[in-house]
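Hi Prof. W.,

I finally got the Armadillo repeat-containing 6 prediction working! I wasn't sure whether to trim anything, so I left the full sequence exactly as given:
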Amino acid sequence: MYHFASHTNEIDNIHICKRVYFRLRISWFSFIIMSKLISQETFDDAVVENIEEFEMSPEEALDDALSQFKTQDVDLSLIVKDSQVYSSENNGPVVHTSVKITNQLKQFLADDNINEVELEKLIMDFVEECADFAKSSLAGTNDAYTTLYKFLQKLQDSQNNKLLQRFINAVYVLLVGQSKLMKPTDTKYFLQLLELYRADTDILLQTVKVISTSCITNEANKKSYIDGQIVSKAMDLLRTYKDEKELVKAICSLFCVLTADDDSSVPFGNAHETCRLIATEDSGLLLILELCKHYSKDNTILKELFTTLPLLLVRNEFCQQVYDFGGISFMATIFLDNLENAPICSKTMTVFQCLARNDVVKDSIVTSGVVDIILMALSKHVSKPPVCEAGCALIGALALRSPSNAKIIMTTTFPQLLVQVMKSHPDSARVQKSACIAVRNVVYHNSEYSGTFRDLEIADLVNAVLAKHSTAYDEAKAALRDLGCKVELKELWKGEKGSIPQ
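And this is what came out:
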């Protein structure tokens, strides 16, 4: 009995030593990777070692490895966590499903006699597998994009549009969050697809989605597509297929992506120039306005169009074009007809805010009775931050540099409603910031207006913003200053004997 116990202790000591070694090994992984990232191979090795050295089941080994790496603050968001691949039934090195399918696709690619039925099933499995971003990322690091791209070129002559569409969709799924996989030189092929398959709206839709996804945080791809006349081609598609709702939505999303300065790897983007190009290319701004009218009763499409439209209003003359088109009138009607729809309300007010950059258009918005509709929207959706933020921002824009507009605003219930908005969203910095701007812009023109707001004890609310939200600090101080309230103005920079200390 004593001998058995001794033998057990001996085994325990061996396991303890192995476990200490494993802990040290995990620590070493974290030490050598200062960014706290590890490869899939490193993670797999740790799981396999748990199975082989500590006789754990695949599930236990996976859970233990996850626990150990997490204690070292290692980022595991891109790690595939599938216990099945560590099963004893899988002999040889660990191969994850997304990599396995990619390898099978490579074998198909080398075969001149392709079984299209088997290939279609395989690509469908690939899309299903890559719905998980970690698995998609792993496939991307194993040349999945290059393989799919070669397949697209090979299938272009096959006359099997359905299979081609599935591969285009697979590229789209793979590129989500991985736009850098596509090289700028590849953009020419996808532009050609828009020309070659003009009659196939399914392929057109998938291709537009690929183009859009490949441009997210990728300025090089944006430039390549724009140089390849993507804007002109997209406008042509909008005119030809204006009744194809999904295609219209996809093109609107594409315009939003093209006009975003979202690539941190470049010193600056060309968003402003792209906005100008979209607005002027083939009368793009007028086309978007026509589509807004066309879909005035379809909230789903209208939301996408009203997301795109403000992005194009980057010049005074563009706002004037909307005014000349009669845009103020029909958008006010849309606004009034959709008062129960919070997303449409916030989107419409954002459009009006951008239009208000033009002083002539701004006055037209106020005289068209839009202020009353704004207050109705705020009253109905006072509990919804996006509507409150957009409403306050629009009021602030309408009152800016316009004493006459401020006077009209002060004849309404806006002061009382603003206080209600600020009380309803004390934790929303964005709402509070917009509210402070609105107060400041309205009271700036007439000191008598300040008394109305002070009687509503708005100073306490603004001081709370000052104490709680650093991102609204300057706006809150400006509001207090123009309200005539006590405010401490700090002199951040001043000269002292030849130096400028902060």
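DSSP finds 28 helices and no strands in the chain. Does that look reasonable to you?

Thanks,
D.
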